[in-house]
Description:
Elements: E1 20-23, E2 28-32, H1 50-55, H2 60-66, E3 93-94, H3 101-111, H4 125-146, H5 151-177, H6 185-197, H7 204-216, H8 230-236, H9 240-248, H10 250-260, H11 267-302, H12 311-316, E4 327-328, H13 342-347, H14 356-362, H15 364-367, E5 372-373, H16 376-385, E6 395-396, H17 399-424
Parallel strand pairs: 3-6, 4-5
Antiparallel strand pairs: 1-2, 2-5
Amino acid sequence: xxxxxxxxxxxxxxxxxxxxxxxxxxxxxxxxxxxxxxxxxxxxxxxxxxxxxxxxxxxxxxxxxxxxxxxxxxxxxxxxxxxxxxxxxxxxxxxxxxxxxxxxxxxxxxxxxxxxxxxxxxxxxxxxxxxxxxxxxxxxxxxxxxxxxxxxxxxxxxxxxxxxxxxxxxxxxxxxxxxxxxxxxxxxxxxxxxxxxxxxxxxxxxxxxxxxxxxxxxxxxxxxxxxxxxxxxxxxxxxxxxxxxxxxxxxxxxxxxxxxxxxxxxxxxxxxxxxxxxxxxxxxxxxxxxxxxxxxxxxxxxxxxxxxxxxxxxxxxxxxxxxxxxxxxxxxxxxxxxxxxxxxxxxxxxxxxxxxxxxxxxxxxxxxxxxxxxxxxxxxxxxxxxxxxxxxxxxxxxxxxxxxxxxxxxxxxxxxxxxxxxxxx
Length: 425
């Protein structure tokens, strides 16, 4: 995530009841606390723009005049759908409204408008990218030209160091995707490509394209590239060996799910391919094929059966009824740039990795109310061995239901604008 300066990409006093915190299986924690008067952002004129509607706040008078929120999930935005169980249901779960995050953002900002002060890029990210890429290429050189005899040292280093660095590259590419690495689009592309040097396949530009679609159409069948394909649901179900195989080959799923979208490569995807081919050629020339193998195995294991790769499962696999996004609040966030704070990220995509924990600290009544994970290892274990979890443990929605839910946002803000205008008159 240099030219003109783009904004970070945005795709998306409370009275509370007693809080009850209880542990559940697989490191999943949850507290249930209801904010009774969380509101929504507002407007001040008939000619208000959509951008203003999305960022302003409804006054207390307007909020009272508007009455109950039309979305039955307000203000926490937990759904009333039941999760899909392998060998019990034949498909993913279905919801009849839009994804929860844009409305949660509005509800949170009504109570905590100071969160907007967290918006913006993190200047340190570009240095992290250069340092991480340098370390990975140095290790490729070491195992390609210096330590060329020991296979077990290569494999241990791949899993412990190389695969971990690969996950860091994934986070850096994610930050660059949301324009959170610098002021300009050019700087964000630079960081994304630097991170891609440590990954021997051209991932950055394709990830940017499809990940932004995931935010815009989370769970929308046929539009969200993160949803499982039909054959994944049919073949894998709850079999532990099949689920382990699914995890082992998960790096391929980025390619397969992207290809299933049947879209022509963009100009920047083609540039990315050329860049990566040249980078790989330089690696082979100076580090040898063994050095290239180090990079490839780091990618394969880092995006497959690795503790940090559990965030692919943690983020949107449904472990509870009605909740489609989950955060991880364990110690590995320190190593992997807070990638576990996934609810916070989806609610506030303009906030860089370094400030995501602050969102939860500012608005605990909105985040401690949700189920969350505390162990990535336990997430992997639960996914593989628990029979009620599998690739179909996702929730989807039709595009028409998505539009119906989004229409509530626009209508409520237009109604708020009218109330504000009448109040001023």
